[in-house]
Amino acid sequence: MTGWICFAASAVFALLGMASFLLAAVGVFRFDHVLYRMHATAIADTVGVACLTLSAIIYIGVDFVSLKELAVLAITMLTSPVSTHLLAEIEYRMGNRKKESRPIGGSKNDA
Question: What percent of the chain is helix, strand and coil (3-state, nearest 5)?
């Protein structure tokens, strides 16, 4: 019985992680400014990796491989937000604030 519970919990976390990445992909194409796009991908990156890692740990069980996965998760949780913040800071300081609103691939003439 516990095998099915672990499988179900693992499936739920895997689906949450994949949904997070899918929403990030939609956000990249939907948002009109680079800082908004960076925010969408940064949040989804951290949440998605955390959910998929927890899914793998629940499915495989706690062993030495899970410790490696937790180490990867910790490194991702520490480096991803910092790198996104630094890139956003550079973008903001270069003066590329929101001037015009157009989606990726759209031209200035598109309505």
Answer: 75, 0, 25
CB 60 within 8 A of CB 94: no
> What would the two tokens of residue 36 be?
């908004």
- Cα 45 to the center of its chain, rounded Å: 2
Q: What is the pLDDT of residues 45-85, one digit of tens each?
A: 889 999 999 999 999 888 898 999 999 999 988 998 888 88
Task: Kindly list the domain boundaries of the chain, sorted by start residue.
Answer: 2-93
CB within 8 A of 101, min separation 6: which ones?
32, 33
Which pLDDT value is given to residue 51? 95
DSSP secondary structure string, 18-52? HHHHHHHHHHHHH-SSHHHHHHHHHHHHHHHHHHH
> Which candidate, 37, 66, 38, 42, places its Cα nearest to that of 54?
66
CA distances from 108 to 28, 88, 96 (A): 19, 24, 17
**Is the pLDDT score of 91 beyond 70?**
yes
